[in-house]
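User: Predict the structure for this protein chain, please.
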Amino acid sequence: MVSSKIPPVPARLRCFVAMAFDRDDTDTWFDQLLKPILDESSLAAIRIDRVEHNDNIDARIIAEIEKADIVIADLTYARPSVYFEAGYAQRSVPVIYTCRKDHLQPPNSETPEYQRVHFDLAMKNIIAWQSPSDATFRERLTKRIDLLTRPIRANNEKALEKRELEERFKALPVDGQLLGGVAAVRDVFKKHKVQIAEYAERRAHTVEISDDYLVIGQRKGVSEIFGCQARVTPSMNLTTLKALKKLLVAPLYDIKLNRPKQLEVLRDLLLLVTTGPVPLERLRTVFSEFSLVSAERKHLEWSGGAKLPAKRITSVDHILIQRSSYRAPFVGLITKDESPDVEVDIWPEGQEYRNRAGRSMITTKLLTVNRVINVVAIDRAKSITDVQERVEAALIASDPTGSGSELSG
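Assistant: Here is the predicted structure, written as structure tokens:
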């Protein structure tokens, strides 16, 4: 049901009619043929000489054209004002050209200038009329109007639906908006074959993020892993952004592969989904190592190298990048304090919090792969659909190879 706060999309579109006024034949044509056709097509006919106003006439004509959905320009009698109005309108509004049929005949030396269509408009697909009862004109114009207004009406319906969704979202409590945003992110991840990592979301406290509005997933290909991490929140201050940066230094998704040596690219995407604004300057302050991809989409990117285990480790359920720098990340559920160049210690899951003497340690060599990190702010979210569309666009922009098509077992 349409909210009372939302103005309904008008059923009747606006049609501005540019034509010769105060001529018996054109006025009769308008009243007896054109206007009935427009009425049947749910178009409100706007003739400037029949609009009551107290404005400058030229300014009012331009204002009416800019409000119109379509324009009908009748070229009968070659009125200069009609030519101007049609030219101004066709920059942004569909224009249908009509004309009395005899004005389209090849001119001769006896044909008055005002009874011929000027050469610069003669190539238009003009619909000719002969009389106020011209059935052929009625049929052709009705079809042309339907052709031009069908997408306009469809767009208007989409605009109304969008406003309804935004009003419903706005009416939700804050928690409802956040949970809706989380559900939207998860739906898009699943649609793009990003597997939700429930175990990783439970580990969020390791990077000082303890709330429920976090979505983590990954998509594994033969030669690429695409890790996706999203935080849904009302706003993003500097402290929150610095905490979330740890999801890139130490992402929580699983980077374990059956054949590690085939891995060529490790991609990361961090989505910052908020109902409030996130200034680009704030993002660039925290992610100062990143390059700007798009100011409009608030999209930043970093690329470099990552060190990962060079072989499969069967006794470890999940391998995570636990502590790193952007220059030389290394891997493990738990690692030693120093940053090794050749080897890294990995502790099997469940042994992270034991003392060192009580843990089983695995030492493995590392390989270096390319790592590409994208950060995209999806701020001022207005509806669930808005979040879904923008998350999907961010996924596509951040994973140009579309490696979901080469999923490994």
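The chain has a mean pLDDT of 81.
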